[in-house]
Design a protein that fits this description.
binds flavin mononucleotide; globular; alpha+beta; NADH Oxidase; about 15% strand
């Protein structure tokens, strides 16, 4: 990483206005994902996170699937705005990373550790979130603009069918990225006193 971890976390933002160029190669993007999948921790070292990197036509196909899914669900009057947002932002990027958690692994853990059975689905969500932040910060550090989207569960079936993924892979989040073409908005912070307590 070019920046230290604190700088990378401070500089990570949501970028919604994207162009398709990338300042780094697709291999370098794959390396970032491989690094996170190797080193980010998981509950019980379960390594339940699954990732799909969509580039080029496959990336655009994801956002076409999303539009096709939303079209019959969104009021006709509102759909042009939805379509404009998807086309102008996410679909116009360089790629999208899909984050899944493998239910097969979660079920194995539930069977192996019945005492914690009801906790494992939540811990899988936590595990995914850790991967999301690591990849988000590393992509931004590499000069890409990134955001985090949740069109699941609406698009789950169509996505798993399109890329022939295991039905046990549960879609958790979509991370479109590209070259950011606009500054991120001003960000406000609520008081740390309300959010952090120290007893010592
Ligand atoms: C768990 C989580 C879920 C989010 N879901 C969405 C989402 O579905 N769509 C979206 O546009 N942004 C989503 N975001 C982005 C947040 O709105 C954003 O991170 C927050 O407003 C702070 O802005 P920043 O990312 O520029 O620092 C999500 C962020 C987190 C951490």
């Amino acid at each position: 990483m070019a920046q230290n971890l604190q700088d990378a976390l401070r500089n990570r933002r949501s970028h919604y206005s994207l162009s398709p160029a990338s300042p780094i190669s697709d291999e370098a993007i794959k390396d970032i994902i491989d690094f996170a999948v190797t080193h980010v921790p998981s509950a019980f070292n379960s390594q339940s996170t699954r990732i799909v990197l969509l580039l080029g036509e496959n990336h655009r196909r994801l956002w076409d699937i999303t539009k096709d899914t939303l079209r019959p669900l969104v009021p006709a009057k509102a759909f042009p705005a939805t379509e404009a947002k998807i086309d102008g932002s996410f679909r116009n990027g360089h790629g999208t990373i899909l984050f899944f958690e493998d239910r097969a692994i979660v079920e194995q853990l539930q069977a192996a550790y019945p005492l914690y059975a009801d906790r494992f689905p939540t811990w899988a969500q936590h595990t995914s979130a850790m991967h999301q932040l690591a990849i988000w910060a590393m992509l931004e550090d590499a000069g890409l603009g990134v955001s985090l989207q949740h069109y699941n569960p609406l698009i789950d079936e169509a996505v798993n069918r399109e890329w022939q993924l295991s039905p046990q892979w549960e879609l958790i989040a979509q991370m479109p990225f590209g070259t950011s073409t606009a500054q991120s908005g001003e960000k406000t912070f609520t008081s740390l006193e309300e959010r952090v307590k120290v007893f010592g």
